[in-house]
Amino acid sequence: MVGLPARGKTFIAQKVGRYLQWVGVNTRVFNVGEYRREQCGAHQLHNFFDPENPEGKRKRQEAASAAMDDLLHWITNEEGTAVAIYDATNSTQERRRWILERCRTYQARAQLQVMFIESVCEDEEVVMENIRAVKLQSPDYAGVDPEAAARDFRERIRHYESSYEPVQERDLTYIRLVNVRSQVVVNLIRGYLQSRVVYYLMNLHVSRRCIFFSRHGESMFNVEGKIGGDSLLSPRGEQYANALPQLIKDNLGSENLTVWTSTMRRTIQTASKLPYPKLQWKALDELNAGEKYPEDYANRDDDKFNYRYRGGESYRDVVLRLEPVMMELERQHNILIIGHQAILRCIYAYFMNLPRDELPYIRVPLHTVIRLAPKAYGCEETRFRVNIEAVDTHRPKPQAG
Amino acid sequence: MVGLPARGKTFIAQKVGRYLQWVGVNTRVFNVGEYRREQCGAHQLHNFFDPENPEGKRKRQEAASAAMDDLLHWITNEEGTAVAIYDATNSTQERRRWILERCRTYQARAQLQVMFIESVCEDEEVVMENIRAVKLQSPDYAGVDPEAAARDFRERIRHYESSYEPVQERDLTYIRLVNVRSQVVVNLIRGYLQSRVVYYLMNLHVSRRCIFFSRHGESMFNVEGKIGGDSLLSPRGEQYANALPQLIKDNLGSENLTVWTSTMRRTIQTASKLPYPKLQWKALDELNAGEKYPEDYANRDDDKFNYRYRGGESYRDVVLRLEPVMMELERQHNILIIGHQAILRCIYAYFMNLPRDELPYIRVPLHTVIRLAPKAYGCEETRFRVNIEAVDTHRPKPQAG
């Protein structure tokens, strides 16, 4: 990452990390600020960041080195493709050359490609908003008066501004995001992974919004304990469809909303009473369980994420077909998804950063609306349980032993 | 489009046009050179393009206007989303303002968004190569000595160079592709369609390569006249799998190749004797025909592209799930796809720019390898028929009446 403080670097690093992890690339974020707080304690005021303060400078360099040591140790010991995100200001050419140099010494052990992501924001209002919303909650300012903290943080930014050099080295691989993506510059991008990250970053936005999701109402097949098929709602499922509009209205107010369903009748029926624009996605259809072979099913818990039914799909397959849906979801504002158990598990895992082995066991009960509100450092979750009985389709992970 | 002559503008325009058409967006390219040739005749030598030549200037402006008139007439009469590509040099700020002004007068009738795609190439070698490969074949130089033609074309470029202004107007939506995409600049990109085009352009490459494709060898289900399922090869299908390695070697030589299959046994078995790296794509699995309802099937020919089997897929669904595969195919070099009838029809239609109503009836016979070699203005096709009998699974479009 490259950029002055309060330019959304950590937000971007976290989002990219979660996205890559979700599509199956082993990814970890190394935040230099955390190393500094651990080594030097929190509550460092702006003087610590003054380039003319040799003591502060030395300590900041130590934190940067320690984070880089851990990063290089981690990435060179991972199997297969891995991505490490080095989350710090890296705001001078000298510092960026140091990063390249450190990585070069590891080239023998791992093929490291370095890509810089710079976030530039020239709008002082946006920066101040970011300081208020994020930085004042940071451990650096625990117990400090907000006004004083804001003043101190602006002083800290000034120290970096005096030596800031935007990324423009022609031999570096980089993407510059200028003023909330109104201009994007991309240099020497190579390979699939880098181009995926660029595309993802171009689709991200930072406006406030909510994502609601719910499974379809209880279906006839749920009641009968069958999976697959394209059944209609049970009478209790219909009651749920009738109750949804009020619940959404109570928790959304008068904002705009778009409803996404699969192409299956039970989701379309569940959405039928909602007074919002609707879109059907084939990619939101339930995991295809293929043909049933009871002898296969017994082994499914050994690795449920990768288990593919004969002629059907695994959770891994579902993540791949959902990827364009998630990209579009990042671009959109308020969305309500009426979906299916396996599909919503994948979507939930994306936003909540849950690992693949837990994903197939996430609880997404019937007759419950989940609301996620993305914030700078994660998602706020609220669950609304509608008081209409439904069968429980959850099967917990069997205990080993 | 924006750029000096011989910068690949027409190649880019054609590729973007074919891609958008394939994903379902009504798209048409308006090439100003064609209008000029029609109005003024071919064989205009470089003096015609000299900005100091008032007669040439007036005639070129007339061709530009006529193309723009047709473009605006076309796009404002299309229903739904449509994209018109205005393929000309548009190399001055004045000309770009004229384009915006022309579009603005049509704003009342259609919501037109204007996006500029600039192709910049600073490498004289690459430009000369492009002149030799493409421009000397152009109608402008039919019957002219190649050396003289190349000299004349370089003079033509000089005329444009003298007044060329790269796109940098801050209020324009644009993407600049510099030196075969080694640097990309993106400004004020808004909305889904623009961001798809940007991502597509970042994945395009212009290196020479081949795409081979073949259906799996004849399967047991082919012989029995069944569709769907995951059957193995028939004895004749196995013979085909044995014959493939020599056929590919004879027509590829010693170049690298990667083999893509679906996850179905008949494609994996067909690829099993090939001595190249292999990759299985779930997204290459055959169109899912769902459950069979004979009364539905009778109507399928009315609109075969959009017809979705109950609980299964339409050709439209298949195009959507293939889109990431095509994006990856654009990024790769030599690829051999061992696939299925409906899937290969979609891929063939992409490269050969066939309309959606013809797509479901494209002939992709068993035991035949198709080789496509992308060129500047389309694809060269070669078909290799292997002399092993197989059933014919093609069903032509019924004649109306």
From TrEMBL, chains A, B:
Family: In the C-terminal section; belongs to the phosphoglycerate mutase family.
Keywords of the record: ATP-binding, Hydrolase, Kinase, Nucleotide-binding, Transferase
Pfam families reported in the protein's UniProt record: 6PF2K, His_Phos_1
SMART domains (alphabetical): PGAM
Keyword ATP-binding tagged: yes
Listed GO biological process terms: fructose 2,6-bisphosphate metabolic process; fructose metabolic process
Protein name: fructose-2,6-bisphosphate 2-phosphatase
E.C. number: 3.1.3.46
MF (Gene Ontology): 6-phosphofructo-2-kinase activity; ATP binding; fructose-2,6-bisphosphate 2-phosphatase activity
Stretches assigned to the 6-phosphofructo-2-kinase domain: 1-206
EC top class named in words: hydrolase
Organism: Thamnocephalis sphaerospora
GO CC terms: cytosol
SUPFAM superfamilies: P-loop containing nucleoside triphosphate hydrolases, Phosphoglycerate mutase-like
Xref: InterPro entries: 6Pfruct_kin, 6Phosfructo_kin, His_Pase_superF_clade-1, His_PPase_superfam, P-loop_NTPase
